[in-house]
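ENCODED BACKBONE
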Amino acid sequence: MKEEIIIAGFGGQGVLSMGKILAYSGIMQNQEVTWMPSYGPEMRGGTANVTVILSDKKISSPILSNFDTAIILNQQSLDKFESQVKSGGLLIYDPNGITRHPVRKDITVCTIDAVDISANLGNSKAYNMVVLGAFLKKKPIVTLENVIKGLKKSIPERHHSLIPMNEKAISIGMEKVNDINKI
């Protein structure tokens, strides 16, 4: 098993955190893991993306040009990374703010209305966990138990009281993911 993932959006959407939680979750499952963030100099609102590789074998390089899965949270990222999803791969995106939707027919395309769902939860910071839930529904490469362990490792202990809300957001994301184009 080897899964090569790009998560891309604006700074402040939890892109890097989502990647870190996935990486920690893989570690908890004794997988080989890479986590490579890339972001602009802005604190919020600039571009941000992270590549995560989870594998049951040694990973030769963290640098990727094509991905098994793209998790896309803004139009600029969709424009940049849609073409880099491997044929037969998965693209998950939040349609909020997207003006040009994916057009490829050789990949599975799914949506998750994470902005609306996290607003209904009463916590916009749960946005990335809703998206993570959608991904885990489509590709259950790490268990929910290990995702919770990954959450505990990646967020400060003073915020551990938010873990149940994050777990609920993941579960709702798993329920609410929509297939647009399934191959």
